[in-house]
Write a structure and sequence with these properties.
The complex is a heterodimer. By secondary structure, chain A is an alpha+beta fold. Chain A is built from 15 helices and 19 strands. In chain A, the strands form 5 sheets. In chain A, strands 1, 8, 9, 10, 11, 12, 13, 16 and 17 form a 9-stranded mixed beta sheet that branches. Chain A has a 4-stranded antiparallel beta sheet with strand order 4-5-7-6, covered by helices on one side. Chain B is mainly alpha-helical. The chains are: A alpha+beta, B mainly alpha. At the A-B interface, helix 6 and helix 12 of A face helix 2, helix 3, helix 5, helix 7 and helix 13 of B.
């Protein structure tokens, strides 16, 4: 009896601390071989963007869990004001914001340096976003003044905690030089600790974080490219948070696991078929219209899954400021498609080439389009290439039809400019991603950008969408939402409805229950 | 022996140079621009040009080739174009994992494959032989991404004996061993299937030789005939296959590495290819080629140990 009591007591003595101490290390599984770029101004892939948002802040931010531009709030800036003409913006910084690793307090010099770095093509992948600014200067250690060349739809949107808006430590960049991208310094709730090639990246809590010390002490960001293995690691409890697949079967299967929550959130990537309006046979609008009629969007959503996708309704994704569904987009009508082809001189059907990436999610979608096209007598000749080759060749204007899926800052201007303004036509000096050579809405896009009257601005964006849809520069297909799975003991500390970093934001409030 | 090794290493220099040149050319002939791969969606002509300048891709092809050769010959393989990390440090971080897996699966393969191969040969066209042939066929037919996932489901998820994530800490031998068991078993079984078939076939051929018949006629015990006269002579093709297989394993165990979440040389090569990381690919290929030369050398030296005639 005495021995049993002693054993029980000793067992309890060992067991109690394990139960008493909440878990403070978060293990995240991500579909990647390795990290790419740790310099936030080069973080373009999902893998890099997710983690950049945990390490860096912007002048302003989307509240955690939201991507609504109307709700932007102060981040490193406490407050701001603009001149009556809207061209001069003054930001007042918080006092006492500390950089990671003892790099001192954030000052206006860091902000000026960061924004200038983000605006330079040599030091940033997002330099074009900063073009609207004429000057960026420090008024005093806690005040930054920005002067615009002309009006832009959303000044705060450029300066938010997203891509070009991240603020880095000037001292760290100057001191570390090229090494900064391997050892970055920000002000966010988590600081870079180490990276093991091909295995994982470790972050530690930034106890001096200006919103308070994070509840989590460590994050292990694990690179696990195999979906099956990542899922098994999640099921075995080795991962707390798992990068999910936008696939209904995956969502259903994962939801059925015990103690598991599947988060499906914004922004959705909209997939569109961009039709090159300058090459035969797509230079004939009847052929483009036939393609628009051949597409069956409800069927695409049934294939992709109702939880993770929705129909594309315009050439701008849903929910973006300026989006309209009232744009004249046609519904599926195979007879009409065939009639249009016949009218265009192709009574026996037509064959059109499309260069396509071999990435499974892109290739399977293209194969579904191919089947839908076939019903209308259009033979989609898929030329499958490796993903990097696909990106190069579509930018060389080699594919008459380009299937491209993207999410952008949720204001119509960005999508319209990058995909449908003549300045963005591929293979030109100012090229971005206008694969269709569309130029029918330049006036509306330019007009909306400088419009000071919000109603007029939105009316111009609506008009632009109507014109692009009428000319069938692109056919919206479907929108795919982001998916992550977590164990139910992980509490983000906010309600996750959207995240511009394409992954759940891990904040100072994120914790295990 | 020393002179033999030196002679072989010197003979490998032209091979390495040819590989360096071929790799340099191939990675540039393959379509796809590293700058576009790095910049992704945001690849504007201005950004691409700036990145080309930063990565040295704006130089003439000859200049790039000379730079590459000079650096490689001085033992400096440069840095990854994508991550900026030194290539040698990336390779050094994963090479122990690759060697662990290669050697462990080699051991598993030999321990299982050689005895089964001998056993099957000694029982030709009997139940044991049929069973061995069938099992080796199954072993060869199952791709690693199927057998690996199955093994993970049973041993890591159902019985929880081993972890799913196999990235071990190099400074912890127990952790290293714990995370090696499942991938080494998976790959080792495939290797065992190969070795079983080769051993069986080599043994069958040797057991029909006159000297075996003579040894038996002289009254040498059967066990001794098999082990001393049979296996030793049958070992040459087995060693050849094992040597070739090790070379393949070093770079091609990528599927095992992906399924078991292990770091490794194969995984880095695939990642570098996807990202068009020219410098990383070049460095990896040179290192890989060097390892192949070393493996071939060891194989040749093993021939000498097994068959004294080779030394002469």
């Amino acid at each position: 009896m005495l021995i049993r009591a002693a054993l029980l007591a000793s067992a309890l003595a060992f067991a109690t601390p394990a139960f008493a101490q909440p878990k403070t290390t978060l293990s995240v599984g991500i579909a990647a071989q390795d990290i790419g770029q740790l310099d936030p101004h080069f973080a373009v892939s999902t893998i890099d963007r997710v983690i950049a948002a945990w390490m860096f802040n912007g002048l302003v931010r989307f509240p955690p869990g939201s991507i609504d531009p109307a709700k932007l709030e102060g981040d490193l800036a406490e407050k701001w004001e603009s001149s009556p003409d809207g061209l001069t913006w003054t930001f007042h910084l918080r006092h006492g914001v500390q950089f990671h690793g003892g790099f001192g307090e954030l000052t206006a010099d860091d902000v000026v340096f960061s924004l200038k770095k983000a605006g330079e093509a040599k030091t940033s992948a997002f330099s074009s976003e900063l073009r609207p600014f004429q000057t960026i200067e420090a008024v005093d250690p806690y005040t930054v003044r920005l002067v615009l060349k002309d009006h832009v739809p959303s000044v705060l949107g450029i300066l938010t905690n997203y891509s070009q808006g991240f603020i880095v430590s000037k001292k760290a960049v100057e001191q570390r030089g090229d090494d900064f991208k391997r050892n970055p310094i920000g002000t966010g709730p988590f600081a870079f600790a180490s990276v093991t090639p091909n295995q994982s990246l470790e972050l530690v809590a930034h106890d001096g974080y200006f919103r308070g010390a994070p509840k989590l002490k460590k994050i292990s960001y694990r690179f696990i490219p195999s979906d099956a293995s990542r899922d098994l690691a999640f099921q075995s409890g080795e991962l707390d948070l798992n990068y999910g697949r936008a696939d209904q079967a995956w969502v259903n299967r994962t939801k059925a696991l015990p103690h598991t929550i599947v988060d499906v959130f914004e922004p959705a990537e909209e997939g569109e078929l961009h039709l090159n309006t300058t090459v035969k046979p797509l230079d004939d609008i009847r052929v483009r219209q036939a393609i628009a009629y051949a597409i069956n969007r409800p069927e695409l959503v049934r294939w992709r899954g109702a939880d993770v996708s929705r129909e594309g309704q315009s050439v701008v994704p849903r929910g973006y400021l300026g989006f309209t569904a009232d744009n004249g987009l046609v519904a599926n009508n195979v007879d009409k498609a065939k009639a249009l082809l016949k009218e265009a001189g192709y009574p026996d059907g037509i064959t059109i080439k499309m260069i396509q990436s071999q990435l499974p999610e892109m290739l399977t979608a293209a194969q579904v389009f191919q089947a839908q096209f076939k019903r209308a007598g259009i033979n989609l000749d898929l030329q499958v290439v490796e993903h990097a080759t696909y990106h190069q060749q579509i930018r060389q204007d080699l594919s008459p039809i380009v299937y491209y899926s993207a999410a952008r800052f949720p204001v119509a201007d960005v999508y319209l400019t990058q995909f449908f303004h003549s300045r963005s036509i591929v293979k030109t000096p100012t090229a971005v991603t206008n694969f269709s050579h569309c130029n029918v809405a330049d006036a509306e896009i330019d007009g909306a950008r400088v419009a000071t009257d919000k109603a007029k601005q939105i009316a111009l964006w609506v008009e632009a969408q109507k014109k692009i849809v009428a000319q069938v520069c692109a056919v919206p297909m479907f929108e795919t939402l982001l998916v992550f799975a977590r164990h139910d003991n992980l509490d983000y500390g906010y309600k996750l409805e959207g995240s511009m970093s394409l992954g759940p934001l891990i904040t100072e409030a994120t914790h295990f229950k | 022996m020393i002179f033999y090794i030196i002679r072989r290493l010197v003979a490998a220099v032209p091979t390495l140079l040819a590989v360096l040149t071929l790799v340099f050319l191939i990675v540039r002939v393959v379509p796809g621009d590293p700058a576009i791969a790095i910049l992704g969606d945001r690849a504007t002509p201005e950004g691409v040009a700036a990145l080309h300048a930063r990565l040295g891709l704006d130089k003439s092809i000859w200049q790039q080739y000379v730079d590459f050769l000079t650096q490689s010959l001085s033992g400096d393989f440069g840095r990854s174009m994508v991550t900026g990390r030194p290539i040698l440090s990336d390779v050094a971080a994963v090479l122990p994992h690759t060697l662990d897996l290669t050697l462990a699966s080699l051991i598993v393969g030999c321990i299982i494959g050689v005895p089964i191969g001998i056993w099957a040969a000694l029982h030709r066209n009997r139940a044991i032989d049929y069973a061995a042939r069938l099992l080796s066929l199954i072993g060869l037919s199952f791709p690693v991404f199927v057998s690996g996932i199955f093994i993970l489901m049973v041993f890591a998820l159902h019985w929880r004996l081993f972890p799913v994530i196999g990235n071990a800490r190099l400074d912890d031998p127990l952790d290293r061993l714990n995370k090696l068991v499942l991938p080494a078993a998976t790959l080792g079984l495939v290797m065992a299937a190969y070795i079983t078939r080769v051993t069986r076939s080599a043994m069958l051929s040797v057991l029909g030789e006159d000297y075996i018949r003579t040894a038996r006629a002289k009254g040498v015990p059967w066990r001794r005939v098999v082990w001393r006269h049979g296996l030793r002579n049958a070992a040459m093709p087995v060693v050849t296959v094992v040597g070739l297989y090790i070379g393949i394993l070093i770079g091609n165990s990528v599927l095992t590495e992906i399924v078991f979440n292990r770091p490794g040389l194969g995984k880095i090569i695939v990642g570098a290819l996807n990202q068009r990381d020219y410098t990383m690919l070049q460095g990896l290929m040179v290192i890989y080629c060097f390892l192949i030369v070393v493996v071939n050398l060891i194989t040749d030296l093993t021939y000498g140990i097994i068959d004294p005639r080779v030394k002469q």
